[in-house]
Amino acid sequence: MADLRTEAKFDLSVPELEKKAKQLRRHVVTMIATAGSGHPGGSLSAADIVTALYFKVLRHDPKNPQWPDRDRFVLSKGHVAPILYAALAECGYFPVEELSTLRKLGSRLQGHTDRTLTPGVEMSAGSLGQGLSFGIGIALASRLDKRDYHVYVLLGDGECEEGQVWEAAMSAPHFKIDNLTAIVDHNGIQLDGKCCDIMGLDSLADKWRAFNWHVIEIDGHDMKQVLQALEEAGKTKLRPTAIIAHTVKGKGVSFMENNVNFHGKAPNAQETEIALKELA
Amino acid sequence: MTDYADLSTREAYGKILVELSKEHKDIVVLDADLSSSTMTKYFAQEFPERFIECGLQEQNMMSIAAGLAATGKIPFASTFAVFASCRCFDQVRVSIAQPHLNVKIVATHGGITVGEDGASHHAIEDLALYCSLPGFNVIVPADAIETVEVIKAAVVTEGPFYVRLGRPKFPTVYKDGYRFNLGRAVIMRKGKDATVIACGVMVSKALEAADKLASQGVNCLVLNMPTLKPLDEAAVIAAAIQTGAIVVAEEHLIHGGLGSRVAQVVAREKPVPINFIGINDVYTKSGKPDELLQQRGLTAEAIEQAVRAAIKKKSAG
């Protein structure tokens, strides 16, 4: 229930959110450059959505990551862990300095999310397609426990090629779950190339509609549209909401934008310098 | 009070689950369109609000179960053993095993005693798959009474479980009053000449073989090994030291299941001859359960011969 979110500790304005998103993008570039490997493209395309959730929409408390009434953010496309880590660190779940340990031996910040290690991470992911089902489990538990939290699941568009996504998409409306929102980061590019060349997805919105979801299509980089869509999702009753967020892979760094090479490659020192300048 | 002794293991599971769920309000049950066969239908009738029918979506079911466990529920996810293992292994690995979530997978129709349905429905790889997952508890009860005790233990023991049950009724090997200890072998017969280690339906056949051998002056130590993982290594080592020859019997491929696990411990600590009773690297076909067990050498007679052969190897060594 959106109107009960008085406990929210993060309530940034749209300009503040835009600024925060830029800061998270800088973290992403620095972290992946330091690690020497990782997935910048999808982290940058999801940055505005993740920022809106953690700094405005989610009811959460970094000092109490296990708070039973917290809203849940489930990152299904686990390879964009850096954008989640950046948000969690900026919220205060763990020190920002720890971001430099990404992917290193002994780090709490694994290459793909690990719920047993990182405060604030809800799901261990990395094998695509499982997060929406996991989110359904959390939403079904809320019904039994009579809690009013909302579950947000972020999926990639390439991820929607996995069959399990459609099992979950079929079941959530069947279970009449309405405290669940699937957000598809529709950046149009996956590891091997453009999604339309690798495995045609169109029309994603029609597919979710056909599975009985309330569907909202937005520009995933327009903060106002992102907030409006999330608000509408929170108010939708009797069925879950799918937000198809049209985004740009690598958004914010000119040479990474729509560049398939930066799906899963770290920038070198020179590229990092340019990227950070562009994100200043 | 239900008299469990005369039930199949899956029937016993369905009944005890209802009993335990009256007290344990966090138990939720998931099934994939097989509740009339896995016997979770009893739970569905008693607690419809806590029963989640997942339809024919085993992958979805396992990740939903993980989400429920992450929220403090005790999910029991049931389907046939072939589907609970091979159909959704990646979901079990990533959603459940890696985060070590408290999900109880209780699979029925294990092994080849499924019978007439044929190869696609004969679960002969499931134990190897589940034993390969770090942190999983893997259990094969021998009869209905042991099943009841295993399910009780699964409810109160934190962590992921795979419990494999059967389709037909297994011969009863326990009396009321039996208490299951997770990770502990049970001495069913004492003997010094050889050891037979078995699980599931093969326990009754091991006892039959041991009794026959005893009447001929060959005394076998018989261990029921319901917990494949974590394995009771101490019991295996003691058996190797005390008897010097081992036969392992299981309703599974001879590779990757109980036999392999026993052999690894024996090879490391006290090498002695071991013979293996199980399915030898083939897929099985349709037939009646007993015909299939006979055809594949999963019989008391085969165990008896394997014991004699193992003793011969021991003497030759």
The appropriate CATH architecture of the largest domain in chain B is 3-Layer(aba) Sandwich
What is the chains' assembly state? heterodimer
The outline of chain B comes out as globular
* Helix proportion of chain B: 40-55%
The tally of structural domains of chain B comes to 2
- CATH homologous superfamily annotation of chain A: Thiamin diphosphate (ThDP)-binding fold, Pyr/PP domains
Structural class of chain B: alpha/beta
Beta-strand residue percentage of chain A = 5-15%
Radius of gyration of chain A: 17 Å
Radius of gyration of chain B (Å): 19 Å
Q: Give the termini separation of chain B.
A: 53 Å
Provide mean pLDDT of chain B, rounded: 97
Number of strands of chain B: 12
Number of helical stretches of at least 4 residues of chain B: 13
CATH fold node name of chain A: Rossmann fold
Helix and strand sequence of chain B: HEHHEHEHHEHEHEEEHEEHEHEHH
Widest sheet: strand ordering of chain B: 2-1-3-4-6-5-10
Question: What top-tier CATH class of the largest domain in chain B fits best?
Answer: Alpha Beta
| Approximate shape of chain A | globular
In brief, what are we looking at here?
The complex is a heterodimer of chains A (280) and B (317). Chain A is α/β, with parallel strands linked by helices. Chain A has helices spanning 14-35, 40-45, 47-57, 81-91, 131-145, 163-174, 195-198, 204-210, 223-235, 269-278, and strands spanning 72-75, 151-156, 180-186, 189-190, 193-194, 214-219, 241-246.
Task: Characterise the protein shown here.
The complex is a heterodimer of chains A (280) and B (317). Chain A is of the alpha/beta class and 280 residues long. Chain A is 40% helix and 12% strand. Chain A has a single domain, classed as Thiamin diphosphate (ThDP)-binding fold, Pyr/PP domains (Rossmann fold), CATH 3.40.50.970. In chain A, the strands form 2 sheets. Chain A has a 5-stranded parallel sheet, with helices on both faces. Chain A is globular. Chain B has 2 domains: 4-164, Thiamin diphosphate (ThDP)-binding fold, Pyr/PP domains (Rossmann fold), CATH 3.40.50.970; 186-316, Rossmann fold. Helix content of chain B is 42%, strand content 18%. Chain B has 13 helices and 12 strands. The relative contact order of chain B is 0.12. The model of chain B has no long low-confidence stretch (mean pLDDT 97). Classes of the chains: A alpha/beta (280), B alpha/beta (317). The interface between A and B is medium-sized, with 33 and 31 residues.
